[in-house]
Structure formats: structure tokens, C-alpha cells
């Protein structure tokens, strides 16, 4: 009897917190997919992950990543320019070998 009571409490908890409703919606979406995905588990993970609110820390990391990409591109461009400038002052490879 105690195990049934615990199960019922847990079921009510899942229902109250919206877990059952969300799982049902995702499973219905999987059922209604015209072409079933290779991995049902990946489908569930993707759709459950999309249902959760964005973590503010993730957004900060995305912004930082975009910033770093910009800095990287600027550094690569600067490197190209400096190499071209340096090549103007260095003798060609053939002259170096002759010496």
C-alpha cells in the first residue's frame, strides 16, 4: 500500500509541475512526425531542450563567443597585413640562397 501511495504522490507531483503534459506533447509530436527520426531519444532531447527557458549564462557565453570570433577575424586580418608589409622589407628567397 505504501508503494502505491508513493507512486500516486509522484504522479501528482509530475502532473502538477507540468512534466506529464510536456512529455505528452513531445511524444505526440514524435508520433505525428511523417518521417520518424533515426534516434527517438535525440528527438526527445531536442524538443525538450527547446521547451526549457534559456539560461542567462548561456546567452552571456554566446555573446562572448561572438565577440571572440570578431577579435579572431580582426587578428587574422591584421596578421595578413603585417606579413605582406614584412615581405616588402625581406629579400626574396632566391637572393637569400645566393648569399
UniProtKB/TrEMBL annotation:
Principal localization reads nucleus
Q: Which PANTHER family match?
A: ASSOCIATE OF C-MYC AMY-1, C-MYC-BINDING PROTEIN
| Domain of life of the native organism | Eukaryota
State where the protein is found.
Nucleus
Organism of derivation: Marmota marmota marmota (Alpine marmot)
Q: What name is this protein filed under?
A: c-Myc-binding protein
What is the similarity comment for this entry? Belongs to the AMY1 family.
Q: Which UniProt keywords apply?
A: Coiled coil, Nucleus
Residue spans making up a coiled coil are: 58-85
Amino acid at each position: 500500500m505504501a508503494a502505491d501511495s508513493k507512486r500516486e504522490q509522484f504522479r501528482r507531483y509530475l502532473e502538477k509541475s507540468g512534466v506529464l503534459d510536456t512529455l505528452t506533447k513531445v511524444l505526440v509530436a514524435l508520433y505525428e512526425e511523417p518521417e520518424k527520426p533515426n534516434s527517438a531519444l535525440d528527438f526527445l532531447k531536442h524538443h525538450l531542450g527547446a521547451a526549457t527557458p534559456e539560461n542567462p549564462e548561456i546567452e552571456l557565453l554566446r555573446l562572448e563567443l561572438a565577440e571572440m570570433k570578431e577579435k579572431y577575424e580582426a587578428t587574422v586580418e591584421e596578421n595578413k597585413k603585417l606579413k605582406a608589409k614584412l615581405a616588402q622589407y625581406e629579400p626574396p628567397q632566391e637572393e637569400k640562397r645566393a648569399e
